[in-house]
Amino acid sequence: MTGKGQGFGFGLGKMKELADAFKKAQQVQEGAKKLQEELEVMEIQGEAGGGLVKVVVSGNQEPKRVEISSDALSEGADVLSDLVTAAMKDAYTKSTATMRERMEELTSGLELPGF
């Protein structure tokens, strides 16, 4: 074995690929910061009982408000509790789906070479 030019198998081509990957990763990081800001102000509505109860959360699941119709109040505490819970679950599901979708858009095409 002469040892000349052997290195670690990480030639110039791989260095360029790695540099490109780091550049893409930096773009994703910047995009993630922007996305986080967008999610904070986004409003996603969940509802239950055909709209008797509505829950609004941000894109990152922070509760914003609850709207309860007067018709829902006449249903009684147990039913109202179930409606609020169902509306919360609906809002949470929509919010996490939105977040996941946006993150997939952000990271699409990010491939790390040689890994």
Detailed description of the structure:
- The chain is α+β, with helices and mostly antiparallel strands.
- Helix content is 57%, strand content 14%.
- The chain is built from 3 helices and 3 strands.
- Strands 1-2-3 form a 3-stranded antiparallel β-sheet.
- A hairpin with a 5-residue loop joins strand 2 and strand 3.
- Helix 1 runs antiparallel to helix 3.
- The model has no long low-confidence stretch (mean pLDDT 85).
List keywords for this structure.
115 residues; alpha+beta; three-stranded antiparallel sheet; 57% helix; rod-shaped
Which SSEs are present, and which pair or pack?
Blueprint: H1 12-41, E1 44-48, E2 53-57, E3 63-68, H2 70-73, H3 77-107
Antiparallel strand pairs: 1-2, 2-3
Helix pairs in contact: 1-3
